[in-house]
Amino acid sequence: MHSPELSRHDTATAGDTLARHLHTQAGAFLRSLRLHSESGADTAGAAEAARALRSSARRISGSLSTFRPLLDPDWADTLRGELGWLSATLALEHSCTSRMVRLLDALSRLSGTSAVPRARVEPAPPGEEPAPGGGTAARRGGALTVGAARAGALLERRLTLARTRAHSAALGALGSSRFHAVADSVALLASELPLAPAAAGPADEVLGMLADVTERRLLDAVAELPLGRAAHPYNAEALVNGLAADPAAEQQDAPWHEVRRLLRLHRYAREAVRPGDDPVLCHAGLVLDHHREAAEASEAAASAARTPRIAPATAYALGVLHADQRHEVEAARFAFQQEWRHATAAVPAP
Amino acid sequence: MHSPELSRHDTATAGDTLARHLHTQAGAFLRSLRLHSESGADTAGAAEAARALRSSARRISGSLSTFRPLLDPDWADTLRGELGWLSATLALEHSCTSRMVRLLDALSRLSGTSAVPRARVEPAPPGEEPAPGGGTAARRGGALTVGAARAGALLERRLTLARTRAHSAALGALGSSRFHAVADSVALLASELPLAPAAAGPADEVLGMLADVTERRLLDAVAELPLGRAAHPYNAEALVNGLAADPAAEQQDAPWHEVRRLLRLHRYAREAVRPGDDPVLCHAGLVLDHHREAAEASEAAASAARTPRIAPATAYALGVLHADQRHEVEAARFAFQQEWRHATAAVPAP
């Protein structure tokens, strides 16, 4: 979706340019880390710092993946694995929070009470256990049916518990010797980058070629998606198997999640080769983020419905909620194929 | 959507042409009635005859409504009320059957078992009570979850019972003196049509004018529909209030049901003025039939979920099914706005 453009480092080697890029990302990583440790009781500040830390970790990890042929492969794979562990650990708390917001908002919408103030979703201070059953959704009352109110309270209880655990795990990870080793490796990235012989090649040609490989993988993965079906609104594809015993729903989501991952990798590779973001790719990525969030939220509703001894009205509301989120999954696929068609129509594929 | 066209009865009065049209419809009505009474144990034949009987009754009733200014109003209103009673009584059995097919098919689709043979949906012979719990859905097993299987069995039990009652009511109605009075009135329609003075006017002008009034009512009702919103796929409008305590969902469906009714009235008025059907109007009508069927099916799923002492898994499956059918409601609205845009783009409005 882009033709390699001569960057401003005409005479630089690929290794030089990659080192410069990783240096920038490592700087952002270490800055976020300092902000996080300084945030103290400022939970919003800590969350923002954690988000920036995850973002830098993903970008560094993406560069290590895309430009692996220019690096010592064992070293690159090891650091990439550690950065993956870090991002995943930090991401969990955020995803619990956004899943809760998404599901409680959906319950409000389905109950015609969208005007009600949004439930409290800030991370719980460490060590403060949320009172079971004391959720905001349960207190709303009003036009909410008993089932929707109970479903909201159940989801809030489960997701608050998961978020508290994720928060503790993230704090534990950031204080661990494993994390300090990752931070040390990142700090040394720019100065002591272990390069492979191919890194001596000209920057534009070598980096552009490797970025094109990443793009090709994305294009191939998109070509495998059922975009023709997704282009037909209300095709009811996302809810097929919605009540099946085997988790076939996850199977149909997997190729879309893979495209989301490859799209991000492609965006990061582009950034390394040519600074600045592509708004179309960025928006397509957001759409696939929604796809994954809705898929995970629908699974959270289905999982909550398997709680023993819940009332039928609660289970009914969770069933409606599950289907609602599966339709958001389908809506995201429809939006993605529109974005993609728009993008490929605007810029000829390489 | 049509400009009145000179019909072949250039010199006829409006009363003559209307009488001829009603004569044709009355003939169809009486033929269907004879077929029905001759069908005996042939349930498929009886169902087809009942369908044709309903169709004629609706057409006669539609003509009495559209061309009321040409008729003795008290007589027209009385006969129209009786025909309405008859159609409603005969329609109930059919709608129970199609609702059961729709819901069991949807459960199969949601369970990934669409290849399984469709459940038995023929009307039960009079007096034969279906065995509770012995439904086809319960026996399917396989990939169906326990909840989906139980939900299917519950719906089959409830709708079979409702259908059996509707069947008995229809048989009772067809044997009643009230029905014989309606049949007598229909038989006398053509020969003794009680006309008003306006019926002496020229056929084309008067009938065309009254048909245009019906069309104008349709256009006004369509203009009130939220077509702009319906044109955005996945707007999630149909499931808003899906879990609300008050039945607000029915309120949002009502304008669409009204357009469906007016569209049918318009089609029947067109038939009286100019024989032959308009395929676009016909298709738009089918789409609104689906809209109503899905709305009623979603309500049947919600209603079944209120059965006391059902298992949470059953309630969950009914929740998914309810939401699925509400999305079919939304899909029908999307399809209708496309049909309508197509129709109004093809033929300039009068």
TrEMBL record, chains A, B:
Residues 114-139 are annotated as: Disordered. Signal peptide: none annotated. Residues 11-345 form the CHAD domain. Coiled coil: none annotated. This is CHAD domain-containing protein. InterPro entries: CHAD_dom, CHAD_dom_sf. The lineage of its organism: Bacteria, Bacillati, Actinomycetota, Actinomycetes, Kitasatosporales.
